[in-house]
Amino acid sequence: MPRTNRIEVNPKVMLGKPVIRGTRIPVELILRKLGEGASEADLLDAYPRLKRADIQAALSYAADTLAHEEVIVEFRRRQTGS
User: Fold this and answer.
1) Would you say 30 and 14 are in contact if contact means Cβ atoms under 8 Å apart?
2) Which domains does the chain have, with CATH numbers?
3) What is the crossing angle of helices 27-35 and 52-67, to 10°?
4) In whole angstroms, what is the distance from residue 27 CA to residue 25 CA?
5) Which DSSP letter does residue 23 get?
6) Which among 71, 40, 36 is positioned nearest to 58, based on CA atoms?
7) Is the distance from CB of 27 to CB of 61 less than 8 angstroms?
8) Which of the chain's ends, N or C, has fewer CB atoms near its CB within 10 Å?
């Protein structure tokens, strides 16, 4: 199953947050746990329905989302003292 098919966005599931298809496990939760230092094995133990490919799909989804994010940078002139 392609990674894109492992992520689901459905307004009726977790208020439309991206989740692992067929679960109520949000992509955000996976990313947050990994960011806090959890290992892949920790996640697989804590969430028995989760597969290794789901974790990889969550990471790919996050990277793709950030790659398409627009950042607007505002430049301000520095004021000099009088």
Assistant:
1) no
2) 3-67 (1.10.10.10)
3) 90
4) 7
5) S
6) 40
7) yes
8) C
- Is pLDDT of 63 > 80? yes
Give residues with Cβ within 8 angstroms of 8, minimum separation 6.
18, 19, 20, 21, 22
Q: Which two tokens stand for residue 69?
A: 């994010």
Residue burial 39-50, b: 16+ Cβ < 10 Å; e: rest: eeeebeeebeeb
Here the tokens at position 61 are 């989804």
Q: In the prediction, which pLDDT does 82 show? A: 59
Instruction: Tell me, letter by letter, the H, E, C secondary structure of 47-65.
Output: CCCCCHHHHHHHHHHHHHH
How far apart are the C-alpha atoms of 50 and 3, rounded to whole Å? 13
- % of the chain beyond a pLDDT of 90: 76
